Input
Amino acid sequence: MEAVRRAKAASRRIARLLRKQSLILMYHRVATSALDPWSLQVSPRRFAEHLAVLEDNYRVVSLRTLAGALRTGRPLERAVAISFDDGYVDNFLNARPLLEAAGMHATVFIVTAHLESEREFWWDELERLVLECDDLPETLSLDIGGERRSWAVDLEPETGDRDPCRLRAWEGAPRSRMALYHAIWESMLRLPTAEQQAVLAELRSLTGQSAVVRSTHRTMTVEELNEMARSDAIEIGAHTVNHPYLTAHPEASQRHEIEHSKATLQAILNRDIGCFAYPFGEHDRVSARIVRASGFACACTTIEDTVWRRSNPFLLPRFAVGDWTGDEFAERLRQLMG
Ligand SMILES: [Zn+2]
Output
């Protein structure tokens, strides 16, 4: 049976390599900071190495171009589109100059409530309060969406130690800080924004912390967004108003999140916003229908695959890129695209 399974997997891989296909890369941050629990950062040096690999081996096109070709039924061959989610300021400060220097194009998906926001994304603030805080109680008890939840806290790890390897080593340990972070994150994921903020407020009050926006974790301002959008290297896309887990929310709320983010960006930038990305990649038939009815030309998920003739323009797959060396990046792309 194992041999049959392997043969089928190999034939699927060969079929995939033979089809005419393109690829959408998904980045989040081009930055270096020690704490990165979701592995969302690529260092500027490595991002430059990735761009060099793309320049030598592939045809980098805008997402709009890639999706336009798909709609004609003829996906571009060996074409790659670059995308960034969330609108962190390092996209503006670090990624944009490298893209411009390489003469390449990227789409940046913006969470509109965070333009000029006085707060970090909830998952970043949670990271600061749980992973960086020395003042957690031995038992952490929080009201999560109307339900009182309690966790035992491992007070042992040196939280001042920013060595990411050490941080990773906590992951497997029961009751570790990283496990605690993931458990609270999971319990907050599907809540409405106001309830997520209430959890963070309780956590701040329990730990005596105030709400701060770290310069390393802030998102772009409206001025920076405007300057970013003036660059020939950048297309702006929408990523909802508050970055909710869309399918956990009623249709009216999904519609508001999707339509309003498009309208806000169009009003700021005075241009059509044609591309959308589902927060957390989360979507269902309802959210895809709303995106299509809102006048977007395409939408991106986080399903890992290449784009080919049968891909749905409103459920485009993307390939998440890690902090890999140029060689590793090249090898991963070769496995996908041949
Ligand atoms: Zn996102």
Observations:
- Confidence is low (pLDDT under 50) at residues 158-175.
- The chain has two domains: 12-118+218-337, 122-207.
- The pocket of zinc ion is lined by residues 85-86, 239, 243, 279 (CB under 6 Å).
- The chain has twelve helices and 13 strands.
